[in-house]
Amino acid sequence: MNLKKFQPILEVLFLSILVYLVHKLFFLLNDNNPKFQNFHFPIETVYGFFFFCSVIILLLLIKVKTKNIDNVGYTFLLVTCIKMAISFTVLSPILHSGNANVRIEKVNFFIIFSLFLTIETIVTVRILNNKQ
Q1: What are phi and psi of 15, to 5 degrees?
Q2: CA separation (Å) from 109 to 45, 91, 114?
Q3: Hey, CA dihedral for 43, 48, 53, 58, is it positive or negative?
Q4: Contact 7, 62 (CB under 8 A)
Q5: What is the pTM of this model?
Q6: I need a surface site. Which of 2, 47, 60, 117 has the fewest CB within 10 A?
C-alpha cells in the first residue's frame, strides 16, 4: 500500500490535533468563565465531526486525483458546498437553542469550520501542485 498517497490525511490529522489542543487549552484557561460553559455541542464533538468530513473529502480527492487530476478542484468545490450545507444543518439546533451563550457557541462553531476549511484548502492545493 502506498502511504505517500495518503499523506494528506496524516497532515490533516496532525494539524487538527494541534489546533484542538490549542483550542482546548483556551477553554481550560477560561474554565471559570460562564460564557464558555453549557454549549449544545462539546468542542470534541465539533472537532470530530469536521475531522470526519475532512477525511471523507480528502479520500474523495485522492480517488479523483488517480482518475483525472483536472477534476480535483471541481470536486473540492462540490464537496465543500455539501459540507457547508451539512454544517448548517448541524448548526441549526444551536441557532434555535435558548442558551444564553448562543453567540459564543456560534462563533466557536464558525472558527472550527474556518480552521478545517483552511486546512482542507491548503492540503488540496498541495495535492494539485503535486501532479505526479
Answers
A1: -65, -40
A2: 11, 8, 9
A3: positive
A4: no
A5: 0.83
A6: 2
Smallest CA-to-CA distance from 19 within 114, 103, 90, 97 is with: 114
Spatial distance between the Cα atoms of 84 and 79, rounded to a whole number of angstroms:
8
Residues of the chain with pLDDT under 70: 1-2, 32-38, 98-101, 131-132
Residue type, 64: V
Q: How far apart are CA 104 and CA 116, in angstroms?
A: 18
The values of phi and psi at residue 99, to 5°, are -65, 135
Q: Could you tell me what percent of the chain has a pLDDT over 70?
A: 88
- pLDDT over 90 percentage in the chain: 23
